[in-house]
Specification:
Length: 346
C-alpha cells in the first residue's frame, strides 16, 4: 500500500549558494555547511515549476496535433506567514540569516547586534530544500538560484511574520532526479540528503506588545497604531532566454523599493495631527522606526528614511474612526546612498 504524503512531514532548509547555477557540492554531493532550517507554518510553502510544452502545430492531414517539446524552464516559490524569529542572543544572527542576506545583498554587520543594510556590490542566491522528514520514498524537492523578489513584514498579529515571494533557476525532485538534465541537477550527482539533527534558535515573538515602539516623524504612535506592514520589493531579477541554456543563468539588480503602510486610531492629538499635516504637505519627507520586541536578543527594528507620505484616509471602524496612511515609499538620503531601510536585531 502506498504511503500518503503529509504537509506535517515538511522540513525546509535554506542556504547561500556560491554559484548561481550550482548547489554547493563536493564532487556532486551536496555540501550542507551553512544550511539553516526554517520554521514555517503548515500550508504556507509553495514551489512551482514553469516548464510548459511548446505546441508543434504542423499540418498532418487531420485536425489532431502531434507532440510538442519543452522549451524555457524556471521556477517560483513563496512562503506565507513565516515567523520572523530573532536568535534570542544579541549579536547572533537569526535562523533566517541566509534569506536576509539574499534580500539585502550582504551579511549583517555590528557588534552586539546584527544590522542588515542594502549592498549593491553583489548578489547572494539561495538554495531551498523541502525534505519529507523520515521518508526516503516520498518526494522531496530542491530549488537552486532562488531570490526573494518581494517581502512583507506584518505587525500587530499573533506573531511577527514575513511573507516571501521569489523566483528561481529551477526546482528538481528526488523521485525523478536521474531523469533531469545536468543543468537542472545543478552540479549534483545524487539528490541531497536531509541534514541530521538540525538546530533552531530563539522563540517566535508577538507582533505587538509592551515596549514595542512605532515612531513616525519623531511622534510615538505606539498606542494608536492598529496595523503596520513594511514591504520591500528587492528588484532582484533573474536572467534567462540565453542561447546555451533553457534555464535562468544569473541574477541582476533592478530598482529596489521599501515602503510602509499603517492604520491608527484617529484622534486630535498633536502627534497624529503632525502626521496628517506631513501627509498633506507636498515634497516633505519623514523617517519611521518600527520596533518589535523589547528583550535583548529578541528585538527587531526597522528604520525607514525619507518617506514621502501619501495622502491619508479616514474610515469608520465600528464606534471608532481609523486614520490610514496608504503605501508610502522610503528613499535614499542622497545620490549614491543606500540607506533607505535597515533591519537590526539586538
Amino acid at each position: 500500500m502506498a504511503n500518503f504524503n503529509s504537509s506535517r512531514y515538511t522540513r525546509l532548509f535554506s542556504q547561500i549558494q556560491t554559484s548561481f547555477t550550482a548547489f554547493n557540492n563536493t564532487s556532486g554531493t551536496w555540501t550542507n555547511t551553512g544550511a539553516q532550517m526554517q520554521r514555517v507554518d503548515q500550508g504556507s510553502l509553495s514551489i512551482t515549476r514553469n516548464a510548459p510544452y511548446s505546441r508543434f502545430p504542423v499540418l498532418t492531414g487531420t485536425r489532431s496535433e502531434v507532440a510538442g517539446i519543452r522549451g524555457r524552464k524556471s521556477a517560483s516559490w513563496e512562503v506565507r506567514g513565516m515567523p520572523l524569529i530573532p536568535s534570542g542572543v544579541a549579536g547572533t544572527a537569526p535562523d533566517c540569516d541566509s534569506i536576509l542576506q539574499n534580500i539585502f545583498g550582504a551579511a549583517s554587520t555590528g557588534s552586539g547586534q546584527n544590522v542588515y543594510a542594502f549592498s549593491d556590490t553583489g548578489y547572494l542566491p539561495l538554495s531551498l530544500f523541502e525534505f519529507r522528514h523520515g521518508s526516503t520514498t516520498l518526494t522531496s524537492r530542491a530549488v537552486w538560484g532562488a531570490v526573494v523578489t518581494r517581502v512583507v513584514w506584518n505587525f500587530n498579529g499573533p506573531f511577527l511574520t514575513q511573507d516571501l515571494t521569489g523566483a528561481a533557476g529551477y526546482a528538481i525532485d528526488s523521485t525523478g532526479f536521474a531523469d533531469f538534465d545536468s543543468q537542472a541537477q545543478a552540479g549534483l550527482t545524487a539528490f541531497p540528503i536531509e541534514p541530521t539533527s538540525p538546530t533552531v534558535n530563539g522563540q517566535p515573538i508577538a507582533g505587538f506588545g509592551s515596549g514595542y515602539v512605532a515612531t513616525v516623524d519623531t511622534q510615538n504612535l505606539s498606542t494608536k497604531v492598529r496595523v503596520v506592514s513594511i514591504t520591500l520589493e528587492t528588484g532582484l531579477t533573474l536572467v534567462g532566454d540565453v542561447y546555451g541554456s533553457p534555464y535562468n543563468v544569473a541574477v541582476v539588480g533592478d530598482t529596489r523599493r521599501a515602503s510602509i503602510a499603517l492604520t491608527a486610531l484617529d484622534d486630535d492629538s498633536t502627534a497624529l495631527n503632525d502626521i496628517k499635516v506631513k501627509a498633506d504637505t507636498d515634497n516633505t519627507t519623514i523617517n519611521a522606526t518600527i520596533q518589535a520586541g523589547s528583550v535583548a536578543g529578541s528585538t527587531a527594528t526597522w528604520l525607514l528614511k525619507n518617506i514621502q507620505l501619501n495622502a491619508f484616509d479616514m474610515k469608520d471602524n465600528g464606534a471608532l474612526v481609523d486614520m490610514e496612511i496608504p503605501t508610502s515609499y522610503a528613499h535614499a538620503s542622497s545620490i549614491g546612498a543606500t540607506d533607505d531601510m535597515t533591519l537590526t536585531f539586538s
